Amino acid sequence: MDRIANFFASPAMKVVLLAFALIFPLIAGSEYQIYVMALAFIWAIAVYGLNIITGFCGQLNLAHGGFFAIGAYVVAILTVDHGWAFWPAFVASGVFSAVFGFLVGIVSLRLKEHYFAIFTLCVGFIIYLLLDKWEALTHGSLGIINIAPPEGFGLIDFTRTIPFYYLVLFFLVLAIVLVSRISSSLVGRTFLAIRISDDLAQSLGINLMRNKVLAFVLSTVYAGLAGGLYAGVVRFIGPAEAEVVHTFDIITYLLVGGIGTLMGPLVGTMAITWLTQAVQSFEEYRMIVFGPMLVLLVIFMPKGVVGTFLTWRGRRLASKAPAKEGQTRVGDSATSSKEASDNA
Fold first, then answer.
1. What's the number of CA atoms in the CB half-sphere (13 Å) around residue 323?
2. Is residue 122 situated within a structural domain?
3. What is the DSSP letter of 196?
4. Which of 46, 69, 109, 339 is the right S-S partner for 242, CB 3.0 to 4.6 Å?
5. Is 154's pLDDT higher than 60?
6. In which band, very low, low, confident or very high, does the pLDDT at 78 lie, cut at 50, 70 and 90?
7. Per-position DSSP letters for 113-163, written without gaps between them
8. Share of the chain above pLDDT 90, in %
9. Cβ(232)–Cβ(73) below 8 Å
10. Cβ contacts of 46 within 8 Å, gap of 6 or more
11. pLDDT, tens digit, for every residue of 283-317?
């Protein structure tokens, strides 16, 4: 059991997951499954963004789905209405999300706890209203169609499902690596200090506003870029992309996987996505099946799948440490007694 636990917590597990992701198109039963997995990867990128501001910094942003929609609309508007190629528009989606996130952050992050959450919920609703009512810019409730797909390189055509799958996988791996670097850096430790206590962090000389805004902007960049990729694969978007239900979906993925963990966003997104696909045959009854399962998971695993596993493993290692220490002391005492008798 300990060997299995150590394997799941080791870098080798990440290598196995990457290898499985690379060969998935070869073992998938249909092209539809590859398409679903690519969409799940896109949502996982957005979940990693929420994990930065909520999991690391402790600020619940209920406008995260709105920033996802902003990234998608930036790509759609620039490619359809202004004739941009996908890649410049994709970069612009990250830049615009960062700028808008900075403007929202410097206002909203002056609030704390549930006041901040309520404010961002209102921001998300405002984003939805702008996308729905500003017809001159966003095409209103009709949405935008014929969005330009990512341009390929040489013989690689990203309009096909498998090449696009690998493209999204590349961005997902890049997102995970960047989050890993952030979490192990001084900036990441600063975020964790803020999550524990604002007063404690401030007493240590941490600039609360600057670091909160930084975390907020990073999270919105993740959401915006994920939205840009989503627009490139779906090629049609509407104001519904900014509805708060998408934010709650992202929060659900994060809760199931484990808030503040490195692999939690990926595990939660994959688990919920494929569980939803598994019960899809129940049609209108699928939420009756899916809902209680989610409630039970949150009750018995409040730290998420990954968080609960890491907690269990930490307690097991901690319980073994005193036993090993006691065995070491007994061994040292026996050695000392033997040396004393030999000297006598």
1. 5
2. yes
3. H
4. 69
5. yes
6. very high
7. HHHHHHHHHHHHHHHHHHHHH-HHHH-GGG-EESPPPPP--TT--TTSHHH
8. 49
9. no
10. 64, 68, 222, 223, 226, 227, 250
11. 666 667 667 877 887 788 878 888 888 887 777 77
Q: What gap in Å lies between CA 131 and CA 138, rounded to an integer? A: 6
Is 102 inside any structural domain? yes
Phi, psi of 237 (to 5 degrees): -140, 155
pTM of this prediction? 0.88
- Helix (H), strand (E) at residue 236: strand 236-237
| pLDDT higher than threshold 60 for residue 176 | yes
Question: What pLDDT sits at residue 7?
Answer: 46
Asked if residue 341 is part of any domain, the answer here is: no
Average pLDDT over residues 239-244: 90
Q: What are phi and psi of 301, to 5 degrees?
A: -135, 70
The count of domains in the chain is 1
pLDDT top residue among 191 and 318:
191
DSSP run (H or E) holding 329:
helix 304-343
- DSSP labels for 79-127? HHTS---HHHHHHHHHHHHHHHHHHHHHHHTTS-HHHHHHHHHHHHHHH
Buried b (16+ CB within 10 A) or exposed e, 44-58: bbbbbbbbbbbbbbb
What tokens appear for 251 in the block? 């929060």
Range of the domain at 67: 32-330
Say if 239 falls within a structural domain.
yes
Residue with tokens 């929060």: 251
DSSP state string for 276-320: HHHTGGGGGGHHHHHHHHHHHHHHH-TTHHHHHHHHHHHHHHHHH
Distance of alpha carbon 282 from alpha carbon 94, whole angstroms: 38
Helix (H, G, I), strand (E, B) or coil at 197: coil
Taking alpha carbons only, the member of 117, 12, 103 closest to residue 62 is: 117
